[in-house]
């Protein structure tokens, strides 16, 4: 299983994200996206060599519910997670011929040191233990998309397929309340 080290630099609630530096955006991609690629690069030869297997090997990586919907103050973090989801969904198609499965994990808000830094409310946040249970269950069922808590992630997914004008209206309401996507 592959997990990414999180990196994000959400701007303070009253600061436009445009004020944050391009180096912090690059850093989010280096840690979240490139870090995941390096881990996959290291894991794939091992998965290919897995012998005597009764099930197809499974490659999994942690993305985020923020990949489903662009939110204020989550430009680089959200984009780096969307890149992970897109990359893995594409890789899944190429690895099918080798009988290697790919799961993408999309957590909502989880109580960790990462989210302890957020200065906005995090709806439907769950404990790290509960998140681990969702992940273990999803991997056991070999789900392609492991997302939780479902009430939150289905809502975010639904908002994510709205027309751009409606997504913009929703995002501006969140921004107006000084909230953001941060790490979710
Ligand atoms: N928490 C959430 O609500 C949430 C939601 C969606 C997705 N996620 C994703 O879930 C994953 C785990 O997040 P988390 O909340 O558990 O974060 P966390 O509590 O901050 O833990 C992150 C871990 O990554 C390591 N790390 C951070 N930067 C690193 C770097 N540049 N190189 C190597 N290791 C580094 C940290 O090591 P040290 O302890 O040594 O610093 C720590 O062990 C991340 O991919 C995150 O984006 C989290």
List keywords for this structure.
binds NADP nicotinamide-adenine-dinucleotide phosphate; 6 helices; 184 residues; Rossmann fold; 3-stranded parallel sheet; mainly alpha; 49% helix
Describe it:
The longest helix has 28 residues. Helix 2 links the parallel strand 1 and strand 2. Helix 1 runs parallel beside helix 2. The protein contains 6 helices and 3 strands, in the order H-E-H-E-H-H-E-H-H. 49% of the residues lie in helices and 9% in strands. With 184 residues, the protein is mainly α. It has a 3-stranded parallel sheet. It has one domain: NAD(P)-binding Rossmann-like Domain (Rossmann fold, 3-Layer(aba) Sandwich), CATH 3.40.50. NADP nicotinamide-adenine-dinucleotide phosphate binds next to helix 3.
Overview in brief:
This protein has helices at residues 22-49, 75-95, 113-116, 128-140, 150-160, 164-176; strands at residues 58-62, 101-107, 145-148. By secondary structure, the chain is mostly helical. Helix 1 (22-49) packs parallel to helix 2 (75-95).
For the record, the CATH class is: Alpha Beta
Widest β-sheet, arrangement of strands: 1-2-3
End-to-end CA span: 20 Å
Mean pLDDT over all positions: 88
Outline the biggest β-sheet.
3 strands, parallel
Order of helices and strands: HEHEHHEHH
Counting DSSP E segments of at least 2 residues, the number of strands comes to 3
Strand content: 5-15%
Name the CATH superfamily assignment.
NAD(P)-binding Rossmann-like Domain
Percent range of helical residues: 40-55%
CATH topology: Rossmann fold
Question: What general outline do the C-alpha atoms trace?
Answer: globular
**Bound compounds, please?**
NADP nicotinamide-adenine-dinucleotide phosphate
């Amino acid at each position: 299983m592959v997990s990414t080290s999180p990196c994000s630099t959400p701007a303070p609630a009253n600061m436009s994200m445009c004020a944050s530096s391009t180096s912090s955006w690059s850093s989010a991609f280096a840690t979240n996206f490139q870090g995941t690629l390096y881990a996959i690069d290291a894991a794939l030869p091992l998965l290919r060599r897995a012998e005597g297997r009764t099930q197809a090997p499974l490659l999994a990586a942690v993305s985020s519910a923020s990949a489903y919907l662009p939110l204020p103050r989550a430009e680089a973090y959200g984009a780096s997670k969307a890149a992970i989801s897109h990359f893995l969904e594409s890789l899944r198609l190429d690895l099918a011929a080798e009988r290697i499965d790919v799961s993408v994990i999309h957590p909502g808000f989880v109580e960790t040191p990462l989210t302890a830094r957020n200065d906005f409310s995090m709806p439907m946040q769950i404990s790290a233990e509960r998140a681990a249970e969702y992940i273990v269950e999803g991997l056991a069922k070999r789900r392609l998309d492991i997302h939780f808590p479902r009430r939150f992630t289905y809502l975010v997914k639904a908002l994510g397929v709205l027309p751009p004008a409606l997504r913009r209206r929703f995002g501006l309401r969140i921004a107006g309340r000084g909230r953001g996507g941060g790490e979710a």
